[in-house]
Write a structure and sequence with these properties.
Blueprint lengths: L2 H4 L14 H5 L19 E2 L24 H11 L3 H17 L7 H12 L8 E2 L5 E2 L41 H7 L14 H16 L5 H11 L3 H13 L11 E2 L1
Helix pairs in contact: 4-5, 4-7, 5-9, 7-8
Length: 261
C-alpha cells in the first residue's frame, strides 16, 4: 500500500466540488470495482508564460487568465494532447495565476486538465463546445443528485439559478461544480465582473483555488490526493485524474519543456 493510501486522511468537506462523468452520464450498468490504491502525485507542471502573472497595482484587477500562457506553447500542447486550445488556455492561466497568489500550493496545469477530462471531456461532453470567449455551450449540467444508487443526496441550494433544478442540485459547467461549492469558491478568471461556472476561465480558476484550499501542497502525495479526494470521494476517480495528469506531461511530448516545481 502506498504512503498516500496508508496515512490518516484529512477530513473531506461535506460538499464536494465536482461530480465525475460517471454521475453525469447516469451509467446504468453495474460494474465490478477495480482493486486500487491511492496514486502518487503526478509531476506538477507550469506552462511557458507569455508574460509574468504579476500582481496588479492596488485597486486594479488581475489580467484575464486566458492570455497568460504563451500562444505557441498552447498550440503545440493542444495539438499533442487533443485538449481544446481554449480549454488549455484556461487550465494554464489558472495554474500561472495561483503560482503568484499561492506559491506554496504547487498546482500544475496538468492536474486541472486531468480533472477537466474526467468531468466533462474538457467541456465537450454531449456535443458541447468551448467558444472563443471561454463560454461552454450548450451548458453541461449533470443528473439530479437525488440519492439514487451511486449519487449523493443534495436538495436544491440555489433555487435552480445555476442548474435549472429547484428540487435537487446538479453539477454544472466544464469542471462540474455543485452549486453550494460554487457559491463558496467562485472566481472571475475572465475578469468579466461576474463568476459563471459555464465559463471555462471562471471554472478553471475556481477549481484551482478549491484544490489549493483542500490540499495545501499539491507537490506532495498527501496534499495532491487530499485535494482531488475533496473534489470527488472516489478512489477510481483519483486514479483516473492522476493518469490523465501524468500523461499530459509525458517526457516524449512538447510539455516536457515545462517549468517544474
Amino acid at each position: 500500500m502506498t504512503q498516500a493510501a496508508s496515512r490518516r486522511r484529512r477530513a473531506v468537506p461535506a460538499v464536494l466540488a465536482g461530480a465525475a462523468l460517471l454521475a453525469l452520464t447516469g451509467c446504468a450498468e453495474p460494474r465490478q470495482a477495480p482493486v486500487l490504491e491511492y496514486p502518487s502525485a503526478p509531476a506538477q507542471r507550469l506552462p511557458e508564460a507569455a508574460a509574468p502573472a504579476e500582481a496588479p497595482a492596488p485597486g486594479q484587477p488581475w489580467a484575464p487568465i486566458a492570455g497568460l500562457a504563451d500562444e505557441q506553447w498552447l498550440e503545440a500542447v493542444a495539438d499533442r494532447t487533443g485538449i481544446p486550445q481554449r480549454a488549455l488556455a484556461a487550465y494554464t492561466g489558472a495554474a500561472l495565476l495561483v503560482e503568484q497568489t499561492r506559491p506554496e500550493c504547487g498546482l500544475g496545469w496538468n492536474t486541472l486538465a486531468g480533472i477537466g477530462q474526467v468531468e466533462s471531456q474538457h467541456g465537450t461532453y454531449a456535443d458541447a463546445q468551448v467558444q472563443p470567449d471561454g463560454q461552454v455551450a450548450p451548458a453541461i449540467i449533470g443528473i439530479p443528485l437525488d440519492g439514487s444508487p451511486g449519487l449523493a443526496e443534495i436538495p436544491d441550494t440555489d433555487g435552480g439559478a445555476l442548474d435549472g433544478d429547484t428540487e435537487w442540485d446538479r453539477a454544472v459547467g466544464p469542471m462540474q461544480f455543485i452549486p453550494a461549492t460554487w457559491e463558496l469558491y467562485a472566481q472571475d478568471g475572465s475578469r468579466s465582473g461576474a463568476s459563471d461556472p459555464h465559463q471555462f476561465d471562471d471554472a478553471a480558476l475556481t477549481a484551482a483555488v478549491y484544490l489549493c484550499e483542500s490540499g495545501e501542497d499539491l507537490t506532495s502525495d498527501e496534499g495532491w490526493v487530499d485535494a482531488v479526494v475533496a473534489y470527488n470521494q472516489s478512489m477510481e476517480y483519483v486514479n483516473d485524474v492522476a493518469a490523465h495528469a501524468q500523461d499530459y506531461v509525458s517526457p516524449d511530448g512538447p510539455s516536457a519543456a515545462d517549468s517544474s516545481y
